[in-house]
Amino acid sequence: MSVLPRPQLRVRVTAARYLSRLGVDLAPLALLAGYLGYAVAQDDMPPFTLALVPVVTLVVAAFLLVIRPVSVTVDGEIVRVRRLLGPAIRFRRDDVALSVRAPSVSCTQGPARSVLSFADRRGRALLRLDNRVFTADDLGVLALAIGGGPGSRHELVDGPCTVAELVQGRQWAAAWGLRHPYVTGAVLGLAAFALVVVTGLLVG
């Protein structure tokens, strides 16, 4: 993969694509919120149902705090990543020592994803992107534009693979939650259950 001299590139998620993804993520919460609103209107809201309110709030807040890249700008040697919420990411193209692109990674949490990840010389993740928001064409353009410094290593995974295969020898290629989906689900489930129990005791 060649390193472009001083690219002037901007890739931005279209509103329609991002909002469609937002709708998929929030649809279950909207249904639950509608049920809670109906229960309140009917004045028939038992304590256990009321206990779901902080859980819903927690899930919504967690979603909003998930820092999801919405635009990537390559300006000369500088890469800037803007997020929906939270601080922006900024690094130099020379910082990139490792990158991997996998066109189809099967995930426990849902359909297969196209993944593009970058890491520095210490194996620390600089940027992880996938096709939940960016298109496959966007990922291809970014892979070429960001490139990397002298001596950087770029890998392309041929064909479908699992998350375990993707991170073999490259732990930086996927987030911890993606590498350990069952542990993540169990922790979140226990946290939600604890909130339900505590809130139920307080309002019961």
Question: Main traits of this protein?
Answer:
204 residues; Heme iron utilization protein-like fold; 2 domains; five-stranded mixed β-sheet; four-stranded antiparallel β-sheet; 7 helices; 43% helix; elongated; PH domain-containing protein; transmembrane; membrane; transmembrane helix
Q: Short description, anyone?
A:
This is PH domain-containing protein. The chain is an alpha+beta fold and 204 residues long.
The total count of strands amounts to 9
Taken in chain order, the helices and strands follow as EHHHEEEEEEHEEHHH
**Total discrete domains:** 2
With helices defined by DSSP (H or I, 4 residues minimum), what is the helix count? Answer: 7
Sum up the overall morphology in one term: elongated
Q: State the end-to-end distance.
A: 62 Å
CATH secondary-structure class of the largest domain = Alpha Beta
Largest sheet: 5 strands, mixed
